Prior knowledge:
- The chain has five helices and 13 strands.
- The chain is α+β, with helices and mostly antiparallel strands and about 325 residues long.
- Strand 9 (about 270-275) and strand 10 form a beta hairpin.
- The mean pLDDT is about 80.
Amino acid sequence: MSTNTAPEARAEKSLLITMAxxxxxVAVIAVIGFLFMNHPDEVIEGQAEGTSVRVSxxxxxxxxxxxxxxxxxxxxxxxxxxxxxxxxxxxxxxxxAMQAVARAQNRKVDAGTRTQIIQAAADMVAQxxxxxxxxxxxxxxxxxxxxxxxxxxxKRDEAKAAYDAAVAxxxxxxxxxxxxxxxxxQEDKESTAALVEAAGGGVAQVKAVLxxxxxxxxxxxxxxxxxxxxxxxxxxxxxxxxVLKTDDRYFTFNVREELLKDLTLGKEIEVKVPALDxxxxxxxxxxRDMGSYATWRSTKATGSWDSKTFQIKAxxxxxxxxxxxGMTIIYKK
Length: 333
């Protein structure tokens, strides 16, 4: 019986050893496979963007004619649209009329008093001077007669009063002549000059508004969207169209914050534009937190943490032909 037990024990031991070797081999292979297996790249999808400039003006009016269509290439200063405003043109006519009135009033003040008025004042001085001469002679005679006792003191006083009145009238006439020769006061001249300047400002203001009756392209680019139709009324400041700038293209995509270590400011990355089947090098120039609404929340009570989302913008290092805003771009980490 002991003879049969020994072979069985050896066989059982061999089996256990074999199983142990197999388990160890499987474990080693699993570890090696885990260490050397290729982790798939993390793919981040974004899109191409471009700066769009809205064209608007200060003139409310009616769209008369468009000189461009959507998709046209324009250059800075090209005329885009004609807007007409009969109200603004009427305001200009009124402002120019007020300016003419102010200028005429200013010329009148600067010209001084009319010659006829000055001559009349001079005649009044001459008359007053004659009256002084006559009343002086009368008073002198009355004074002599009074001293001789021929007339009463009252008659002498009446002659004296007439003489004093003539002297006062002469002074008044001379003052009026002086005022006529001097013309308007300095304050009046300054006031009319200020009115001329204010009227000129009103004209300039209306002309500045009317200058926007023809709107021009603010930059080189492509007409992206035209908002109103010909014949429609537009309000002051209403956008008429958008021009997509030619030389301003960039890529934008969103990433979790744990990927930011590879997307620092100034970092050069490579993205793929599937629509063009082209790899493009770009430089990161913008990194911004998108706020709490774009936070990846942890689903575990412990052992994990919330991860915020950041927006990344990168500008191509060279011009990419046919790159259009809205095209998908792919960044592989």
